[in-house]
Design brief:
It is built from 1 helix and no strands. By secondary structure, it is mostly helical.
């Protein structure tokens, strides 16, 4: 997806630790995790809606061509 390797992740975590400190880091991690899950759910919902609309449109086209 983003093509981030282990060394890049380590640098990001180190910078986050320095900037946020050990008290805020777990809280921010949980917040980012929740955001990621909500984003995934939203994307899946949009994909499902698009798939449903496409299927309905194809069915209408098949009925009208008969």
């Amino acid at each position: 997806m983003l093509n981030i390797g282990p060394s890049e992740i380590l640098v990001i975590l180190l910078v986050a630790f320095i900037v946020l400190g050990p008290e805020k880091l777990p809280e921010v991690g949980r917040l980012l995790g929740r955001f990621y899950l909500e984003l995934k759910r939203g994307i899946k919902e949009v994909e499902k809606e698009m798939w449903t609309e496409e299927t309905e449109r194809k069915k209408k086209q098949e009925k009208s061509s008969r």
